[in-house]
Automatic annotation (TrEMBL):
<feature type="compositionally biased region" description="Low complexity">
    <location>
        <begin position="567"/>
        <end position="579"/>
    </location>
</feature>
<keyword id="KW-0413">Isomerase</keyword>
<dbReference type="InterPro" id="IPR012698">
    <property type="entry name" value="PEnolPyrv_PMutase_core"/>
</dbReference>
<dbReference type="InterPro" id="IPR025877">
    <property type="entry name" value="MobA-like_NTP_Trfase"/>
</dbReference>
<comment type="similarity">
    <text>Belongs to the isocitrate lyase/PEP mutase superfamily. PEP mutase family.</text>
</comment>
<dbReference type="InterPro" id="IPR029044">
    <property type="entry name" value="Nucleotide-diphossugar_trans"/>
</dbReference>
<dbReference type="GO" id="GO:0050188">
    <property type="term" value="F:phosphoenolpyruvate mutase activity"/>
</dbReference>
<dbReference type="InterPro" id="IPR040442">
    <property type="entry name" value="Pyrv_kinase-like_dom_sf"/>
</dbReference>
<dbReference type="InterPro" id="IPR039556">
    <property type="entry name" value="ICL/PEPM"/>
</dbReference>
<dbReference type="Pfam" id="PF13714">
    <property type="entry name" value="PEP_mutase"/>
</dbReference>
<feature type="region of interest" description="Disordered">
    <location>
        <begin position="560"/>
        <end position="579"/>
    </location>
</feature>
<dbReference type="GO" id="GO:0016829">
    <property type="term" value="F:lyase activity"/>
</dbReference>
<keyword id="KW-0460">Magnesium</keyword>
<dbReference type="GO" id="GO:0016779">
    <property type="term" value="F:nucleotidyltransferase activity"/>
</dbReference>
<dbReference type="InterPro" id="IPR015813">
    <property type="entry name" value="Pyrv/PenolPyrv_kinase-like_dom"/>
</dbReference>
<feature type="domain" description="MobA-like NTP transferase">
    <location>
        <begin position="307"/>
        <end position="422"/>
    </location>
</feature>
<protein>
    <recommendedName>
        <fullName>phosphoenolpyruvate mutase</fullName>
        <ecNumber>5.4.2.9</ecNumber>
    </recommendedName>
</protein>
């Protein structure tokens, strides 16, 4: 990088294009024809883009005969200017009409951040110079000079460049005519002359450059005389070389080869490693920036990114209804329990949902989840299931914050919303209406730093202990609990790594296979983690036995939109079946 470059890069696009035209160095412009190719040109290291009329019309699938309207071209340029901060010199054909069209074109190009336009001295509608060039009528010199003057008079950015393209050599009018025209266009105000040739050798271009003798910047397009060493152009004092159509041609041959291959082989395996990855496309589209912006601007961007649902059990006390399915697939008011849960997660923006199945996992057919199976579900407990989700291949994919949930829950939506909005590394929901610890068959009682004083709503309360199958005799269990943990744990930010660390310690214990979720919560507390408690008072249901199952339909029905449940025979029938 030389010392001049930072200032160059911070200059406006039009100033950079002008600088390229007037500099003493030989400069290069690369063709682009849409946003993606404009991005690719920038990444390759070019300093400017040629907005080729041939390539832009070709990518639209039309001919280089002004078949695409000028506004369609300008709209396309807007995508290119957005995708790349390079200066763009538009190939503006003949200016799409008379002097008045050129004036309007210049104003519109300036508004879209285009650095300059090249207009050629042919007649509208033009034909590509390489198609029967001799037959192409040239513009009247005075009329073309009027266009240049009108364009220069209408620009509001002094650096906007107008390049005048001389087609006399293409049309076979000879060197003198080419020079006469170039001089007239220079006097009319053109910032540079593009001298075009269709010969396979550079002879007439070099002769023109000699005769021109540096009267102004010269631009060339060596599509036909491509074998000329670039050093020859440098020595001839050329200002800028345009590589005019090579990205559309590269894309065309790649697309033809890939389309043919896939069509004949009827498989993707032969091409997958030979084409850009989907991730490369995402990178070129700057998809990462979108994700960051989502975090910044979308409130749902703050919610938990993923969830693990523990759904391995058949359900004690539910044997009669779970012969062919796990508990989570029991129908509640017309849809499986797991569907209710998944829908509730999705409503909060939690879309990356891993369900750990076990008993009759084959019956879990809920859409929109990833299913992992705890093959040892019959001999192991909840933590072994959780480990299947955290240790497996899905770990990397558990994006952002993670919710861990029992699979047999129904709850009002605010409960989950408040939980995922918590700033705490760990937070749980505790129902303060359930404190009847004498019922020994019920576990998950919670002891906290303070009871649920609803007058002090918003006070920080942390978890001290949750009753587990393992600790019925612990000293804290003698005290009246503050409520019951409902089976929802939110792990935020760095909490995920700390949870993993505690999980690894527990996995080293000989009794790991029998540990349940309360054992994890208690181990986190013992490891010094602060687990924030969000108290609720009812508004949720667990499905632990037939009685719960029978009542769950009523609760679920209360969650459906009124219009969907009132007078909906299907919903009523399903609800009836569940009661
Ligand atoms: C273009 O790229 O559209 C040009 C250059 O005008 S050429 O096709 O060589 O005429
Ligand atoms: Mg063109």
């Amino acid at each position: 990088m030389n010392a001049r470059e930072p200032a160059f890069v911070s200059a406006s696009r039009s100033a950079r294009l002008r600088q390229m035209l007037v500099s003493n160095e030989l400069e290069f412009m690369m063709e682009a024809h849409n946003g993606l190719s404009a991005r690719i040109v920038r990444e390759a290291g070019f300093k400017a883009i040629w907005g080729s009329g041939l390539a832009i019309s070709a990518q639209f699938g039309v001919r280089d005969n002004n078949e695409a309207s000028w506004t369609q071209v300008v709209d396309n340029l807007e995508f290119m200017a957005d995708a790349s901060d390079l200066p763009i010199l538009l190939d503006g054909d003949t200016g799409y009409g008379n002097f008045n069209n050129v004036r309007r074109l210049v104003r519109k190009l300036e508004q879209r951040g285009i650095a300059g336009v090249c207009i050629e001295d042919k007649q509208f509608p033009k034909t590509n110079s390489f198609i029967n060039g001799e037959a192409q009528p040239l513009a009247n010199i005075d009329e073309f000079c009027g266009k240049i003057k009108a364009g220069k008079d209408s620009q509001s950015d002094e650096n906007f460049s107008i390049v005048a393209r001389v087609e006399a050599l293409i049309a076979g009018w000879g060197m003198d005519e080419a020079l006469r025209r170039a001089e007239a266009y220079r006097r009319a105000g053109a910032d540079a002359i593009l001298i075009h040739s269709k010969l396979s050798r550079p002879d007439e271009i070099l002769e023109f450059a000699r005769e021109w003798a540096g009267r102004g910047p010269l631009v060339i397009v060596p599509t036909k005389y491509y074998s000329t060493p670039t050093e020859v152009f440098r020595e001839a004092g050329i200002s800028t070389v345009i590589w005019a159509n090579h990205l559309i041609r590269a894309a065309t041959s790649a697309m033809q080869a890939v389309a043919r291959e896939i069509h004949s082989s009827e498989t993707l395996v032969n091409v997958e490693d030979r084409v850009a990855t989907v991730n490369e496309i995402f990178r070129l589209q700057d998809a990462d920036e979108y994700s960051e912006a989502e975090d910044r601007y979308l409130s749902s961007g703050r919610s938990a990114g993923s969830a693990v649902v523990l759904a391995a059990s058949r359900g004690k006390g539910l044997e009669a209804v779970t012969e062919d399915r796990p508990k989570v697939m029991l129908p509640i008011a017309g849809k499986p329990l797991l569907r209710w849960l998944v829908d509730a997660f999705k409503k909060q923006g939690v879309n990356d949902i891993t369900v750990v199945g076990g008993y009759r996992a084959d019956a879990i057919d809920t859409a929109g989840i990833k299913l992992v199976v705890n093959e040892k579900h019959a001999q192991t407990g909840e933590l072994a299931s959780l480990a299947c989700a955290l240790d497996g291949a899905t770990l990397d994919k558990l994006a952002g914050d993670t919710l861990i949930s029992y699979g047999d829950l129904l709850f009002r939506s605010y409960i989950l919303r408040d939980l995922v909005e918590s700033e705490a590394a760990f937070s749980v929901v505790v129902d303060s209406s359930l404190t009847d610890a004498e019922n020994a068959s019920v576990r998950d009682f919670a002891w906290c730093s303070a009871g649920d004083d609803r007058g002090l709503f918003g006070n920080k309360v942390v978890l001290r202990h949750v009753s587990s199958g393992k600790d019925a005799s612990s000293s804290i269990a003698a005290q009246t609990p503050h409520g019951r943990w409902v089976g929802l744990l939110n792990v935020r930010g760095e909490g995920r790594e700390r949870l993993q660390a505690v999980m690894r310690q527990l996995q080293a214990r000989p009794d790991f296979a029998s540990l349940d979720m309360p054992a994890l919560l208690n181990a986190l507390v013992e490891a010094g983690e602060s687990i924030e408690v969000q108290y609720v008072h009812g508004h949720w249901r667990g499905v632990n036995d037939l009685e719960d199952f029978r009542r769950a339909g009523d609760f679920a029905h209360g969650q459906t939109p009124l219009a969907a449940s009132v007078g909906n025979p299907a919903a009523d029938a399903a609800n009836g079946a569940a009661q």
